[in-house]
Design a protein that fits this description.
There is one protein chain. This protein has 22 helices and 15 strands. The chain is of the alpha/beta class. It folds into three domains: about 250 residues, Rossmann fold; about 180 residues, Rossmann fold, CATH 3.40.50; about 80 residues, Phosphofructokinase, domain 3 (Arc Repressor Mutant, subunit A), CATH 1.10.10. Strands 1-2-13-12-7-6-3-4-5 form a nine-stranded mixed sheet, sandwiched between helices. The protein has a four-stranded parallel sheet with strand order 9-10-8-11, with helices on both faces. Helix 7 links the parallel strand 6 and strand 7. The two termini are about 45 Å apart. Bound molecules: 1,6-di-O-phosphono-beta-D-fructofuranose. 1,6-di-O-phosphono-beta-D-fructofuranose binds next to loops.
């Protein structure tokens, strides 16, 4: 039983607009562009069947007869607003192509494919999730499909269900898995098309073919609303320093977008910290310098944004995390066998170099424990569980005490830790995400209908009006590179990080000194669904710049 608020009910009726080309699927034709042979031999070896596939664009063609399609869809990884609309788009496009087409939803992420647990997504189901946040229609999960046994289980499922297509809605890792699955299906002669859809609030699944991943727009607007409110509170109470950690794993796109929407006093950009090889002490120094400057002006409050990936970008801690990743992977049995945390700590310390051990021991016990938590299924440290905001507060407090004793700092420091995380991932999607996702579902359907596999559903020209958005199918292979993961060379989709030479970062760099001392705070308020276009159709700044 789902219970709806008045706004949720209202949003169920919102009809996303479609790009012109997608408005009548009976007259759309696929163009197979000239294929480009890439010269990465390691990748070619792994993808012998799919590495030469061409990019697909679409044009208006002649009216065509269509047969019904049977498609399975799965939501993979962290929630991102708009996922339900991709599924609604798939459903509407499939029914437009042929009313007897069927859409199945795999339950609880890729595990549903391995276990062959799915439900039929009927009109009644779809209609109660249109334009709604979350992934609760079918659930999500982080199970990977990459071992021979998993690939075989997936093959059995698609064959048993006689699927024409399998649509994987996921981030970089899930889409890498989609490419592996497509290659495997081709090798064993399975005809099911595997199509990816670019999802992640982190904004790091972006490249020459993907203007932006879905979910980023809504998440950044929800976080910006919270930050804007906190800024107002800070300005009113004039007594708190808010340390706000923001989701976004390795990339700081969310932090940068929110910064430009709200103008806080200080923002760390992980990519810059990594490039400058900044140490923890330097980061703390940057914060205390600002606090001292503000105290001289009798300002004892402020707001600092901390991307969750910052911890991994700090020079000595990043190196330590890499070492811990390797240790937790290669010594897993031994470490898991040690039940007492002290024994675990001691064993880990015995495996570190003296510098690494010094860094590890200098961290508060809670942070040390958080650094040792289980890695996610892709071998990543779970940065959302590391309380970097609290770590920085502790260290800043200590440093300010020292500065006070030396007579350099004459203020009061009252910190508040905050985390903008899970609440941004499942909010009601913005109009932009509703429309983008709905159209992505249409493009994915067209790719299944074209019979291709190993492709990503893409829409280009997103900064232009919707009518002009340009649907494309791009071989996922074109986005891959070889990286070292869990001690092995693996093909993965290139992550898009903040470009420190790009206009977006430069815009922030040109104003950040001013933000430190003058309170230029802005409060963007909640996402607007109705009203003038300059409020309802606002696109992400990182897309427009
Ligand atoms: P995806 O990369 O799967 O889209 O997930 C993004 C994210 O929200 C990150 O911002 C965050 O670090 C992580 O998921 C949290 O993961 P979990 O849901 O497993 O706690």
């Amino acid at each position: 039983m789902i219970s709806f608020s008045p706004l949720q009910i209202h949003r169920l009726k919102y009809q996303p607009q479609l790009p012109l080309l997608l408005q009548d699927l009976s007259v759309i034709a696929a163009n197979f562009e000239k294929s480009i042979c890439l010269s990465d031999s390691a990748l070619q070896e792994q993808f012998p069947q799919t590495f030469q596939q061409p990019i697909i664009t679409f044009r208006r063609g002649n009216k065509k007869e269509a047969t019904p399609l049977k498609v399975g869809v799965v939501l993979s990884g962290g929630q991102a607003p708009g996922g339900h609309n991709v599924i609604a788009g798939l459903f509407d496009a499939l029914k437009q192509i042929h009313p007897e087409s069927i859409l199945l939803g795999f339950l609880d992420g890729p595990l549903g494919i391995l276990k062959n647990t799915s439900i039929e997504l009927t009109k009644m189901v779809i209609d109660s999730y249109r334009n709604q946040g979350g992934f609760d229609m079918i659930g999500s999960g982080r199970t990977k499909i990459e071992t021979p046994a998993q690939l075989e289980a997936a093959m059995l499922t698609v064959q048993t269900l006689a699927l024409d297509g399998l649509v994987i809605i996921g981030g970089d890792d899930s889409n890498t898995n989609a490419a592996i699955l497509a290659e495997y299906f081709k090798q064993v002669g399975v005809k099911t098309s595997v199509i990816g859809v670019p999802k992640t609030i982190d904004g790091d699944l972006k490249n020459e073919f993907i203007d932006i991943s879905f979910g980023f727009d809504t998440a950044s607007k929800i976080y910006a609303e919270c930050i804007g409110n906190i800024l107002k509170d800070a300005l009113s109470a004039k007594k708190y320093y808010h340390f706000i950690k923001l989701m976004g794993r390795s990339a700081s796109h969310l932090a940068l977008e929110c910064a430009l929407l709200t103008h806080p006093n200080l923002v760390f950009i992980s990519e810059e910290v990594a490039e400058k090889k900044q140490t923890l002490q330097e980061i703390v120094g940057q914060i205390t310098t600002m606090i001292c400057k503000r105290a001289e002006k009798n300002l004892h409050y402020g707001v600092i944004l901390i991307p969750e990936g910052l911890i991994e970008s700090i020079s000595e801690i990043g190196a330590l995390i890499q070492k811990l990743n390797e240790l937790l992977f290669s010594h897993s049995e031994k470490i898991e066998g040690l039940l007492i945390t002290e024994e675990k700590d001691n064993y880990i310390i015995s495996q570190l170099t003296s510098n690494e051990a010094k860094t590890f021991l200098a961290l508060p016990k809670e942070v040390r424990d958080q650094l040792l938590l289980e890695r996610d299924s892709h071998g990543n440290v779970q940065v959302s569980k590391i309380e970097t905001e609290r770590l920085l507060i502790k260290l800043v407090e200590k440093e300010l005490k020292r500065l006070k004793q030396e007579g350099i700092y004459k203020g009061t420091f009252s910190p508040q830790p905050q985390f903008c995380g899970y609440e941004g991932r499942s909010g009601l999607p913005s109009n932009f995400d509703c429309q983008y996702c709905y159209a992505l579902g249409f493009v994915a359907t067209l790719l299944v209908q074209s019979g291709v596999t190993g492709y990503m559903s893409c829409l280009k020209k997103l900064s232009e009006p919707i009518e002009r958005w340009s649907p494309m199918g791009v071989p996922i292979y074109r986005m891959l590179q070889i990286e070292k993961r869990q001690g092995k060379q693996k093909s993965v989709i290139r992550k898009f990080l903040v470009d420190l030479q790009g206009p977006f970062f430069k815009q922030y760099a040109s104003v950040r000194d001013q933000w430190q001392i003058t309170d230029d705070y802005r409060s963007p308020g909640p996402i607007q669904f109705e009203g003038p276009k300059n409020l309802t159709e606002v696109k992400p700044l990182s897309l427009l710049l």
